[in-house]
Design goal:
Structural class: alpha+beta
Shape: globular
Mean pLDDT: 89
Radius of gyration: 23 Å
Strand order of the largest sheet: 1-8-10
Number of strands: 13
Strand content: 5-15%
Length: about 475
């Protein structure tokens, strides 16, 4: 059957008249071509409507991401050599396409000269949204090696400002002030876990929603803010998704959702509006990104069989690919998907405070935050590159996503070499351990242990693949390499 009919069949449009379930043969496998069944978990999904996105220039967006001062405070260039002990990113790879002094800077920093003339290294969006795979830097791939397990509060006490020129000292002190507010609340338990949701909550708690002025004393009680992790999704999904974030929280025009992180340093509406003037270009660049091609061998015959299995069992939630791609944009309640509920419930109850602040602020003017107690089934383009899996990064391989019996309770990535990739399991090689206190581990290894018994870290749920045979699961894994 032509794939253009699949969604009509799945939605119940005159199935017999349309030929749903016909006996047309797949030329690659010789088996009956698959269609999405009318019944399946996808019928329990909530459709997320599309919203118009402001037009933008993708090339200008990439330039802005790599050069502009949307984060306007940072580390003076004189101190950039110390960044290895400050930045959560280990990689020092440069960002392709930059010129002059900026060409040699680590990819996670932009070279900025502020209004006082201070030359600064400021963090950019690639801090979280670029990563190495197979030894190469991939823009848009979520960072999985950042180390937020260290106690970073001491950075706010570095006395270097006394030794700097006045403009640099002023900028550095501002950055230290913001860092001091964040650091106690973003310390994660595992290397690679990202605290983005926590950052958003803490920054909102220190901002006046009307003026964006910084408030020294947090306006939310952050005493019990739980350190719930998130896994950074790849940017190339955004060309298909109607809502941002794993829970579908970000609705409407996405451009201000993408740059809300600038509230680290943006202290007034004038600066926010200046950033917003090119935010549509950044949105256009992000939405233009496509997943990279799988760089290793693929068994095409096995993958063709896997496509049929995928269509019958997975496509209703995650979409169709190939010649007639489509994506349903469905969000699923926690009790349907069964994955860890902490993020969906609002990171310990702070969701409503963040939503109210955001929607009442400058940022809520073109797009809003909308609560949903569940998770969006994402498109799977390039999914093979995005280990670990689930919204909290609790499952190390796609093989274990499809077979929940394989999921370890405590595990650690064997190394951070992006060339050491498990082509069979589709993920990073890992070791199962008894916990962070495993006597076989050295002290430097302990922060790499992922403990699925911790709040927000559960690897439960998404057990839909358990019903497949071993052969069908292997075929689906091979097919996922082609996306």
């Amino acid at each position: 059957m032509a794939k253009a009919l699949v969604w009509m069949c799945a939605l119940g449009f005159a199935a017999s008249a349309l030929g749903c379930g016909s006996s047309e043969k797949d030329s690659a496998t010789g088996e009956t071509a698959a269609t999405i069944p009318l019944e399946g978990p996808w019928t329990l999904g909530v459709a997320i409507p599309a919203d118009e996105q402001a037009a933008g220039d993708a090339d200008a967006g990439l330039y802005a991401l790599a050069n502009n001062a949307y984060v306007s405070c940072g580390v003076p260039m004189q101190l950039l050599g110390l960044v290895g002990g400050i930045s959560p990113n280990a990689s020092k790879l440069p960002l392709p396409g930059r010129d002059g002094e900026a060409a040699t800077m680590p990819y996670a920093f932009n070279l900025v000269v502020n209004e006082d003339g201070a030359k600064l290294a400021t963090q950019n969006c690639f801090t979280c949204h670029a990563e190495e795979f197979n030894g190469e830097l991939v823009l848009g791939l979520g960072n999985t090696t950042a180390n937020y397990t260290r106690d970073l509060t001491s950075f706010s006490n570095v006395p270097a400002a006394a030794l700097l020129p006045p403009a640099e000292a002023k900028a550095f002190l501002k950055f230290q002030q913001r860092f001091a507010a964040l650091a106690p609340h973003i310390r994660m338990s595992t290397v690679g876990s990202n605290p983005a949701d926590l950052v958003a909550i803490v920054l909102a708690s220190h901002r006046d929603p009307d003026t964006l002025a910084w408030i020294d004393e947090a306006q939310f009680d952050l005493t019990d803010l739980p350190h719930v992790p998130m896994d950074v999704p790849p940017w190339w999904r955004m060309g298909k998704k109607n809502a941002m974030f794993a829970t579908g929280l970000g609705r409407g025009d996405h451009r201000r959702h993408m740059l809300a992180s600038s509230t680290l340093c943006t202290d007034n509406l004038e600066e926010a509006a200046a950033i917003d003037a090119y935010a549509n270009d950044i949105n256009a660049f992000i939405r233009s990104l496509k997943a990279p091609a799988y760089p290793f061998a693929v068994d095409t015959k096995l993958a063709a069989h896997g496509e049929n299995v995928f269509i019958r069992n997975c496509a209703g939630c995650h979409g169709l690919y190939g010649d007639a791609p489509s994506y349903p944009n469905l969000a699923f309640p926690v009790d349907v998907v069964g994955t860890d509920a902490a993020m969906a419930s609002g990171t310990g109850g702070y969701r409503e405070q963040l939503i109210d602040w955001y929607n009442d602020s400058f940022y809520g003017g073109v797009g809003t935050l909308v609560a949903f107690d569940g998770y969006v089934a994402p498109p799977l383009d390039g999914v093979w590159a995005t280990a670990p899996f689930l919204h909290n990064g609790s499952v190390p391989t796609l093989e274990a996503v499809l077979n929940s019996k394989l999921r370890p309770t405590h595990w650690m990535r064997r190394n951070l070499d992006s060339r050491d990739f498990d082509e069979d399991a589709l993920g990073w090689p890992y070791d199962a351990v008894t916990g962070a206190d495993d006597p076989s581990l050295t002290d430097p290894q302990r922060p790499f242990v992922y403990d699925t018994t911790r709040l927000g870290h559960s690897n439960a749920g998404h057990t839909f693949g358990d019903a497949l045979s071993d052969d069908d699961r292997r075929a689906v894994l091979e097919y996922l390499k082609t996306l």
